[in-house]
Design a protein that fits this description.
Elements lengths: L2 H4 L5 H10 L7 H21 L3 H13 L5 E3 L4 E3 L1 H13 L15 H15 L3 H22 L2 H4 L4 H18 L3 H12 L13 H21 L7 H4 L4 H5 L6 H4 L23 H13 L8 E8 L1 H7 L7 H4 L3 H9 L18 H8 L1 E5 L8 E7 L4 E6 L7 H33 L14
Parallel strand pairs: 3-4
Antiparallel strand pairs: 1-2, 3-5, 5-6
Helix pairs in contact: 2-10, 3-5, 3-20, 4-5, 5-6, 5-11, 6-7, 6-9, 6-11, 7-9, 9-10, 9-11, 10-11, 15-18, 18-19
Length: 450
C-alpha cells in the first residue's frame, strides 16, 4: 500500500459509530434548546426565502413535475414530494444567506440537514425527538468532516456547506430511518460520490441551490440505501476517494473524538446581518465607529482599511456589486452600510437600489483590504483614517451568546421580522411554539398551510 493510501486507512468505523450511537441519552438541556433554536432559525429564513425568485422557480418546477403531496414547501401553502420539499426548503432557507453557520470550517450546517430531515419526518410520521436526534447527528457529521478536511477543502474552492452538507444530510436521514451498519455507510457513500458545490457560485442563485441540492441528495441517498441500493466502500477513504480528492490536509482525529462530550451544534453561530458571515466582523467594527461618531454619517473619513482572514478577500472583495445578492458578498458595501446607519439585518437593505447609492459608493471607493492569517474567519480589524490625519483602529467580531436562553429573544424577534410579512402573526406564532416544544411532540402538526 502506498504512503498516500495509508493516509486514508478507514475512518469509516468512526463515522458509523457516531451515527449509530448518538441518542437522546447523550443530550443535555443545552443540546435540546440549541437544536430548537437552530430549527426555528432555519424555518424562519426558509419562510422569508420562499418569496425569492430562486424559490418561485423551484415551486413552479415542482408543480410542473407533479408527484405525491408528502411534505411542506415552507411558506407557500403547498406540498410536494419529500425530495421536492428538501430541495425547495434548502434553497429557500439559504436564499438570503441569513441562516446559521459553523465558523471554524466555515459552513452552514443546519439548512442542508434540517431541510432533508423535516421533509422525511413529515412523510414518514416521525416524532419531535427523532427529528432533533437526527439533526444533531447530521450537524455533528458535517462539523467533524469539516474539521478533518479543512482548511484545504474550503481553500480549494469547495462550498463546504454543500459538499459536506450532502453527507451530513444523508447521515441525518439514515439516523431518522433507523438504518444499521453497512446500510448507513451506503447512504453516506451514495451522497459523497455525487456531492458538489463551488464558491464560484457565491453571489448568485446557484449558491442557495447548492444547499437545496445537498438536502435533496442526502435524503435521496438514505432512501435508496434503505431500499437496498449499495455503493463502493472505497468512495470515502480510498486513495482516489472523497477525502483524498477534496483535501491535502485530511486528518481523521476529529472523527475519532469520543461521543459523550459537547456536540458541535454548540458552535453554530446565528446571523444577525443578512450577508456573508465573513463580512460580520467588519460590519461590527463599522457599527462601533458609527455609534462612537454620534450616529452620524462619517463625512470626515479619508480612508477605510479592512484587515481580515484571507478568505474574506477571496470571497468578499467586491468593490462594485451590481445586484443585491452580490452585495451580500461585498465587504466594502457591508462596511458602507454600517457606517451610514443602515439596518444590515433587514432583507430590503441588500437590494439593487442601494448598490447605486452615491454615498455608499463614495465609502466603498475609500475602502482597502488586507489579509491576515492571524484573524479568524469572522473577525476583522478596521482602521479609519480621518481628514484631520487621526486614525482609529477597531476590532470587530459577530455578537452572539453562548447560552440558548439568552439568545432565544433575539432569534424569536428575527423569526417575527422574517415571517410575519409572509405568513402573518398567527402563522409566525405557530412556528415559534412548534420549535419551543418540538422535543415533546409525538408527531409534526400540519403546517402545510404556511
Amino acid at each position: 500500500m502506498t504512503d498516500k493510501a495509508n493516509r486514508f486507512v478507514s475512518p469509516d468505523n468512526h463515522l458509523l459509530h457516531l451515527i449509530t450511537e448518538t441518542n437522546p441519552s447523550l443530550f443535555d438541556e443545552y443540546d435540546l434548546k440549541k437544536s430548537g433554536l437552530c430549527l426555528l432559525d432555519w424555518a424562519a429564513v426558509a419562510v422569508a426565502g420562499s418569496r425569492e425568485p430562486c424559490a418561485k422557480i423551484l415551486l413552479d418546477h415542482a408543480q410542473q413535475e407533479g408527484g405525491e403531496a408528502q411534505s411542506t414547501l415552507i411558506g407557500t401553502g403547498k406540498c410536494g414530494t419529500a425530495r421536492q420539499a428538501a430541495l425547495f426548503n434548502g434553497t429557500a432557507a439559504h436564499a438570503h444567506d441569513f441562516d446559521d453557520t459553523y465558523p471554524a470550517i466555515p459552513a452552514h450546517t443546519t439548512v442542508p440537514v434540517a431541510s432533508a430531515v423535516w421533509a422525511a419526518a413529515e412523510r414518514d410520521g416521525r416524532t419531535g425527538l427523532e427529528i432533533i436526534t437526527s439533526v444533531i447527528t447530521g450537524i455533528e457529521v458535517i462539523c467533524r468532516l469539516g474539521l478533518a478536511l479543512c482548511p484545504d477543502h474550503y481553500r480549494r474552492g469547495w462550498h463546504a456547506s454543500a459538499t459536506l452538507g450532502a453527507i451530513g444530510a444523508s447521515a441525518a436521514c439514515a439516523k431518522l430511518h433507523g438504518l444499521k451498519g453497512k446500510t448507513i455507510m451506503d447512504a453516506l457513500e451514495l451522497a459523497a460520490c455525487r456531492a458538489a458545490g463551488t464558491k464560484a457560485a457565491f453571489g448568485s442563485m446557484a449558491k442557495p441551490l447548492q444547499l437545496g441540492q445537498a438536502a435533496a441528495l442526502g435524503l435521496e441517498s438514505a432512501d435508496l440505501a434503505q431500499r437496498g441500493f449499495t455503493s463502493s466502500k472505497r468512495v470515502l477513504n480510498a486513495a482516489d476517494g472523497f477525502y483524498a480528492l477534496h483535501s491535502n490536509d485530511f486528518s481523521d482525529a476529529p472523527l475519532k473524538k469520543p461521543l459523550g462530550g459537547e456536540f458541535h451544534i454548540h458552535g453554530n453561530h446565528f446571523k444577525y446581518h443578512a450577508s456573508c458571515f465573513l463580512t460580520h466582523g467588519a460590519i461590527e467594527a463599522a457599527k462601533t465607529f458609527f455609534a462612537d461618531n454620534g450616529g452620524h454619517p462619517p463625512t470626515s473619513i479619508k480612508q477605510i482599511h479592512v484587515c481580515g482572514h484571507p478568505e474574506l478577500l477571496k470571497v468578499c472583495d467586491n468593490p462594485g456589486p451590481q445586484t443585491g445578492l452580490a452585495a451580500k458578498f461585498s465587504v466594502q458595501f457591508c462596511v458602507a452600510l454600517a457606517l451610514t446607519g443602515k439596518d444590515t439585518s433587514a432583507l430590503s437593505t441588500f437590494g439593487k437600489h442601494l448598490t447605486r447609492d452615491s454615498e455608499l459608493r463614495n465609502l466603498m471607493n475609500k475602502t482597502t483590504l488586507e489579509a491576515s492569517a492571524n484573524l479568524n474567519h469572522e473577525e476583522a480589524e478596521v482602521t479609519f483614517s480621518l481628514k484631520d490625519e487621526s486614525t482609529t483602529k477597531i476590532f470587530g467580531e459577530p455578537v452572539s451568546s453562548t447560552e440558548p436562553d439568552e439568545e432565544r429573544p433575539a432569534i424569536e424577534a428575527k423569526a417575527r421580522s422574517l415571517c410575519e410579512p409572509v405568513v402573518g402573526k398567527e402563522g409566525t406564532s405557530k412556528l415559534i411554539q412548534l420549535f419551543s416544544a418540538l422535543q415533546t411532540l409525538d408527531h409534526i402538526p400540519d403546517y402545510s398551510g404556511l
